[in-house]
Give the backbone structure.
Amino acid sequence: MRNRYSNPLAQRYAGEEMSYLFSDDYKFKKWRSCWIALAEGQKELGLNILEEQVAELKSQEKNLNFEVMAEKEKELRHDVMAALLAYGEQCPLAKPIIHLGATSCFVTDNTELIQYYEALKLVRTLLINLIKAVSDFAGKYKSLQCLGYTHFQPAQPTTLGKRGALWLQELAINLEDLDYLLANYRIRGIKGATGTQDSFLKLFSGDHQKVKHLNNLVCEKLGFSRSFPVTGQTYPRLWDARIMDILKNMSLSAHKFGVDFRLMQHLKMVDEPFGSKQVGSSAMAYKKNPMRCERICSLARYVMSQGEAADHTAANQWLERSLDDSAGRRLYMPQAFLGVDALLTIYRNVIEGMKVYPIIIKKLLDSELPFLATETIIMEGVKKGGDRQLLHEAIRQRAVETAEEIKELGRENRLLEKLGEDERLPFSLEELQKIAYKGDFSGRAEKQVEEYLAEYIESLLAEHSELLGAGREMKL
């Protein structure tokens, strides 16, 4: 519909699979799955629930009557009761036993935790494939020397692949954190109105073991082996904040990449993928802007900002529960997942389709090499019997002169020529050029990349080989 607001995250950026996980269709079907699991478990533990009632619930599990739910919610102003009664209209035999002993958070919290779990698994697949793409980039350019930058000022050289390894390491850390969360994941289970399980204890005539067994049964039927040992009415909203930390840190890592790429594209070292009919500017026809990385940064900032909302919700969840968590969580939890789905996809699109310009990279490096080589020149001069302090002062004077000429007069870098003419240095111009242009100033950068890929990344990718190749195309 074009006459009402639609969420750009779902419409423009996120994939269909992630969007579906947070759809009404998925949510209400999962609510019904929760009610079925509860009824089945109660029947198995001896409550007076008929097989026919459970069968009826299952027969209508996926046959959602949205119009009935919407009408009832207008009347009741309670979404769970509206969905329950709408389900009951379709299941007249089972209606008396739906939601027996449960509170609203039985369906809402368990469903949300299932949504987040499935969404985290989808994020994990995207992340692993991104790790593969960045690993390929790091390996491909491990030996391509480039100018290093600190404070965005020229610094000691590195390699383009080593820069990629820095991005890669952050993604690997993101995966470690995500895997720890998934390995310790849990749902709410059956806890009752304030978390005491009092209603279930009464249903089972004071049998504590049956209540515990029911909790475990319901969790198993929903696909989980663990639940929170204790809750209030809701599961701890700290868990949401913990999930958001994972998403926030992935966004942070993607933002770092996006900024780095934008800086490199400004230097003409690289270009984003650019379609043959793509338009960079409606005014300036020559423009090729890093719009994909700008989008990564924009989405990442949004996701990172939502982490604070989750923190405030967790901090302000009064006693056993307050409902001021509800409206916010409907917004920031799904949208954070949609945002991460989008930015990981765009990140991979850029890293796999980018263009690298080795000639420009070498030109940038060569323009600064005379300055970068000065420490080596001092060391070589000392080897020839020179005085380290005198050599340092001579080079400092000539370097300051040269820098001023470059900045104020627009001249080329003539530092080596100046040093070759300086009688205080025991080198000819040819010797200085050999030191500057035939040397390798990137240290162990290439070897560091090789070692990191071999010792960490190759085994990680081999362990998850069944997930490689998955993913989706960018929407826009």
